[in-house]
Inverse folding.
DNA sequence: GTTGAGCGTT
């Protein structure tokens, strides 16, 4: 039977009532939801006049003598600091004009093994409405991996949440922006990469969803399900504005980024990131799996897969026509081998036996997702593997930059796709595209944090 | 049945 007990953060405060669970215990998360950082309860023993601690086990606070009684309990904080009265908000609101910012998923690190999604929801709801809560677990054992994700409805909630550490079920946890969001704002163009797609997302679903942000001119979903898609907008600004965001589509959290996210991995003028051979291969022909309604054919989408475009002016296609100038390739930075270079040149010149790619036969139809995987970058040369995932003639040449091509190949240098632009823009060649590796250089630039250490839970936990 | 820096099978 549920009832309520009175709790204060400090003697003299106005009591706040916390609900018990059915078994009469109080969840620590319930406590810490109202008293951030709180890790326990105590009360004054009327007989001795001294304070007594409340038993805590498995994240539950147990009533003394099986009865909470009518007394007022006092919240206990780790270091005799960090307590906060409900009256005084401990978090100075970073009230910026950031009100219009959008929420992103937040990773919660350092969760106790036992914490459930309910615990997380219970705890984090103190900051605002939650759209998503998940604890990553081992699929087999169901054992928590000790981290999870949350997503708030309001950006203010997110800000508040990230502005502090979190005591969850007896452990200090950190909330951060996931690494997957790195390099968010970049690559201005009209096509965005939609990662973490689920298989039940159709092109129509994506179109329907993204249309509310602006006119969608194309949706591309790789044929063998690969958990990502491309969405192209008529307005590049729309696409750009979505980059870096997380959206929830059909219950799944997808991540939106520029079509060649690895672009800013390297700097110094080199075009390190993705290599894409990509003319605007977006000529769409009927029969493809594209949704193409209302598509205006004058969107030349040249230069996909190209990254780190010099300057910010978007002028896709025209300036890259058949430009194989090595200066644009950033070769030095990527240690390309000759085989790959030759392959690329062959592609652009329409020779080289890349028949399966449909380049030599189809005049304008761009090959789709043509992928060339060299060995390790700069490594075993000659092992270029071509794996076009779509070869149908007339297939719309969605030139898919260098998005995740293979997560199994270590540091694959990949081609984007190749295609002759609708407007005659020739292929542009860029190199790069290491999807899986290279994550070590990222240094999450979040709000000032608390080191990276999670203090051990007070003994008695875990 | 253990563990404690990290980054999301679906």
């Amino acid at each position: 039977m549920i009832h309520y007990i009175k709790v204060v953060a400090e003697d003299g405060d106005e009591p706040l009532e916390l609900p018990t669970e059915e078994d009469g215990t109080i969840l620590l998360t319930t406590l810490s939801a109202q008293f951030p950082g709180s890790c326990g309860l105590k009360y004054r023993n009327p007989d001795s006049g001294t304070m007594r601690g409340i038993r805590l086990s498995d994240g539950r606070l147990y009533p003394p003598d099986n009865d909470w009684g009518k007394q007022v309990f006092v919240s206990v904080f780790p270091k005799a600091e960090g307590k906060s009265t409900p009256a005084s908000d401990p978090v100075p609101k970073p009230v910026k004009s950031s009100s219009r910012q959008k929420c992103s998923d937040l990773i919660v690190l350092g969760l106790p093994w036992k914490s459930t999604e309910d615990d997380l929801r219970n705890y984090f709801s103190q900051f605002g409405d939650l759209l998503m809560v998940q604890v990553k677990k081992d699929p087999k054992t169901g054992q928590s991996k000790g981290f999870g994700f949350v997503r708030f409805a309001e950006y203010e909630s997110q800000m508040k949440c990230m502005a502090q550490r979190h005591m969850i079920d007896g452990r200090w946890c950190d909330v951060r922006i996931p690494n997957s969001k790195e390099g968010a704002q970049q690559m201005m163009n009209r096509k965005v990469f939609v990662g973490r797609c689920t298989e039940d997302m159709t092109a129509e679903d994506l179109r329907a969803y993204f249309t509310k942000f602006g006119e969608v001119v194309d949706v591309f979903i790789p044929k063998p399900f690969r958990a990502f898609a491309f969405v192209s907008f008529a307005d590049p600004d729309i696409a750009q504005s979505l980059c870096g965001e997380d959206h929830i589509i059909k219950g799944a959290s997808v991540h939106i980024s520029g079509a060649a996210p690895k672009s800013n991995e390297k700097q110094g003028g080199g075009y390190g990131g993705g290599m894409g051979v990509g003319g605007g291969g977006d000529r769409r022909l009927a029969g493809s799996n594209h949704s193409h309604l209302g598509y205006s054919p004058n969107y030349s989408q040249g230069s996909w897969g190209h990254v780190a475009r010099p300057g910010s002016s978007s002028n896709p296609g025209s300036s890259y026509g058949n430009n194989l100038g090595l200066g644009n390739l950033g070769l030095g930075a990527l240690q390309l081998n000759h085989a790959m270079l030759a392959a690329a040149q062959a592609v652009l010149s329409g020779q080289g036996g890349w028949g399966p790619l449909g380049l030599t036969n189809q005049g304008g139809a761009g090959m789709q997702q043509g992928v060339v995987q060299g060995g390790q970058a700069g490594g075993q040369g000659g092992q270029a593997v071509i794996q076009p995932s779509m070869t149908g003639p007339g297939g719309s040449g969605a030139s898919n930059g260098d998005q995740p091509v293979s997560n199994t190949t270590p540091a694959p240098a990949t081609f984007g796709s190749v295609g002759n632009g609708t407007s005659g823009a020739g292929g542009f060649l860029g190199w790069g595209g290491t999807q899986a590796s290279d994550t070590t250089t990222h240094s999450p630039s979040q709000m000032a944090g608390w080191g990276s250490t999670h203090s051990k839970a007070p003994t008695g936990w875990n």
